[in-house]
């Protein structure tokens, strides 16, 4: 099965729908009980509740109480619907006013906005956006986030690269956190797992054979209460990422 990605349909038609071109968006009428925004909202709600794999034209139609064929008057296929869903999520994002604050605080706010988005809509992180759909939500998001680097002493290509580096980090951390939540829902908490596995592992993890692994693993586990703490990893990684950008942005 191919991965889900934006801009996987007819680009001209998809862009017209994203920007709500009157020539592409079906006009209201007596036989249309819903508008395009309602169709997209139903798809987003379904993805939030059941995951991206649950989203199909048939399932969205059932959620709206209409025949599946009627939805094809709004969107041509699932790929088109996916572009609209991602753009709708971007349009609804928090936009923090960080004017006048240092670059580090502005980029930290951009990271927090994206982390919040991907926590509320984990499915967005499952969609490859390497070829962005460039709808109004995506474009407004990019415009807002670039403002965090307005006074940076770098050229525009580097400005875009700094933002991309930050967003890829946040995306990876959000996916990691979503996987941890899903694992807990299915297999219990890390504390429960360690209570069962710890006594068994103690028989095999010889500190003379694995001195670093035992010492560091024990210290990290005691500090976080688990083998891995996604929130702690995100906070640590974000600080180090911003430290890494400092030689460029403080120049």
Automatic annotation (TrEMBL):
The keyword Transcription applies. The lineage of its organism: Bacteria, Bacillati, Actinomycetota, Actinomycetes, Kineosporiales. It comes from the Bacteria. This is TetR family transcriptional regulator. PANTHER family: HTH-TYPE TRANSCRIPTIONAL REGULATOR RUTR, TRANSCRIPTIONAL REGULATORY PROTEIN. Residues 33-93 form the HTH tetR-type domain. It comes from Kineococcus rhizosphaerae. The keyword Transcription applies. One of its GO terms (biological process) is negative regulation of DNA-templated transcription.
């Amino acid at each position: 099965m191919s991965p889900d990605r934006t801009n996987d349909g007819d680009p001209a038609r998809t862009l017209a729908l994203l920007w709500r071109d009157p020539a592409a968006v079906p006009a209201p009428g007596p036989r249309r009980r819903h508008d395009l925004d309602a169709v997209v909202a139903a798809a987003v709600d379904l993805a939030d509740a059941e995951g991206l794999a649950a989203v199909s034209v048939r399932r969205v139609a059932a959620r709206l109480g209409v025949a599946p064929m009627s939805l094809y008057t709004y969107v041509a296929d699932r790929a088109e619907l996916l572009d609209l869903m991602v753009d709708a999520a971007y349009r609804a994002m928090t936009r923090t006013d960080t004017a006048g604050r240092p670059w580090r605080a502005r980029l930290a706010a951009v990271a927090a906005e994206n982390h919040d988005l991907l926590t509320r809509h984990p499915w967005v992180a499952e969609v490859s956006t390497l070829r962005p759909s460039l709808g109004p939500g995506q474009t407004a998001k990019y415009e807002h986030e670039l403002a965090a680097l307005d006074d940076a002493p770098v050229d525009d290509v580097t400005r875009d690269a700094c933002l991309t580096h930050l967003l890829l980090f946040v995306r990876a951390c959000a996916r990691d956190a979503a996987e941890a939540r899903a694992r807990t829902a299915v297999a219990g908490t890390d504390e429960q797992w360690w209570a069962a596995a710890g006594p068994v592992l103690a028989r095999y993890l010889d500190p003379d054979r694995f001195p670093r692994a035992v010492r560091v693993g024990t210290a990290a586990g005691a500090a976080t209460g688990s083998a891995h703490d996604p929130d702690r990893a995100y906070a640590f990684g974000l600080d180090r990422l911003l430290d890494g950008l400092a030689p460029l942005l403080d120049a």
